[in-house]
Amino acid sequence: MHEAWLPREHPLHRPRHGRRQLVALICALAFFSAPLSSWLFGARPEQLENRPLAEFPSITEGFGFFTGLNGWATDHLPFRKGAVQAVNGISRGVFGEPAPLAGGSHSSPVGAGQVDAKPPIDESVFPPVIEGKDGWLYLGHDVSYRCVPSRSTEEVIAGLRAWRKAVESSGRKFQLVIAPDKSTVYPEHLPESYPGEDCSAAEREAFWREVPKATGAIDLRAPLRQTAERNGRPIYHDIDTHWTHEGGATMVYQLAERLSPGITGTWKMAPSRQYPHSADIPDLLGQDRTVPIQAYSLAPDGGADNTQFKPSDFHQPLHLKSSPKPGMITEPVRMVGDSFTQFASPYLAATYADIAITHPDNVATNAQATATFLAEGETITFELSERFVAGGRYPLLDPAAAAEVGGVLAAHPVR
């Protein structure tokens, strides 16, 4: 018998408190049905960070189903952007300082979605955004990933060497380029002090001293600065973590010269269209801000423009083909690249007759399909972001990943 049905004089009698229970039930129903109600009336979750919204976790993940719910619920919360804007506005207006907004420990704005275990970032210590001088904004993971790495520098080097060995053992050429962090190329705009300054600075110096030399990676720091000096403007956006199209084109030039020295001698670049681009770092502060994008034409033979502008995040591989012309790389090339390559893909399309690009995530989530994809190329190029490499946060840095893909490449060698 329910305790509310007992006689009032019974010592176990407990009233239902009907009115208060009813109010509580109504509040609970409103709270839990708000997302569905908002969805029915047209509200949709907004992507605040430069990555796809977290997918609903699979029941096959075991306990990971429950731990994954938090990231999914956070990403799919309606009006999340408005809430972030309100919190940031109140903090700045009342307290005169930015709000300690969490950027999401399950991922980051650039190249996120990796699937291996990583040490969590304490966002009470390392903020998701570092506000620098002259209005410059830096991604907090430039610092936190160095200070809380998933792998040691030795393990990172071993993983990258494993990829070179796997590719070259199959008769293919291997190119590795690391896109420097904005904080590496433009440290002068960082604030006078910030959390993690000492550990990140020391790790950055050690990284560039050791990793390119040990792995054969192309060091883009000097070419990027030279391009910026020649054009008279920064090669990274002040409020976005990425380089400009000029940075992407610089990478394309460097890669082509190493494949075929002198081939860029006939290339002709010229400014083409301009368009606004939604900056990724302000999104973490709940702000809608854009940066102006200057795109370019590129004629490998010095004649007609041969660029192709096909937006892609490379989670679905992007295949770019065109008729061979003088000044083009004609052998098939397969590339692993992240969001930095998005600013280079029009110029890769202009200068490679057959190039296809896939995201680093795909190497970990579907190794066999990625192996088959890479086996189509005679040259395999990796573009990886400094913060993810330095922090050891790419799953593909596990030598086992290179060994699995390398087995497929070995079975389909290039003679």
Automatic annotation (TrEMBL):
- Is this entry keyworded Membrane? yes
In terms of InterPro entries, this protein maps to:
ALGX/ALGJ_SGNH-like
Q: Which domain of life does the UniProt lineage start with? A: Bacteria
**What pathway is it annotated to?**
Glycan biosynthesis; alginate biosynthesis
Q: Which GO terms describe its molecular function?
A: transferase activity
**Where does the chain cross the membrane?**
21-41
Q: Which residues form the AlgX/AlgJ SGNH hydrolase-like domain?
A: 129-262
What Pfam families does the annotation carry? ALGX
Q: Which GO terms describe its cellular component?
A: periplasmic space
> What biological process terms from GO does the record include?
alginic acid biosynthetic process
Q: Where in the cell is it found?
A: Periplasm
Arranged from A to Z, the UniProt key words for this protein are: Alginate biosynthesis, Membrane, Periplasm, Signal, Transferase, Transmembrane, Transmembrane helix
- Tell whether Chaperone is among the UniProt keywords: no
Q: What is its main location?
A: periplasm
What is the protein name for this chain?
Answer: AlgX/AlgJ SGNH hydrolase-like domain-containing protein
Report the source organism: Saccharopolyspora terrae
The opening ranks of the lineage are: Bacteria, Bacillati, Actinomycetota, Actinomycetes, Pseudonocardiales
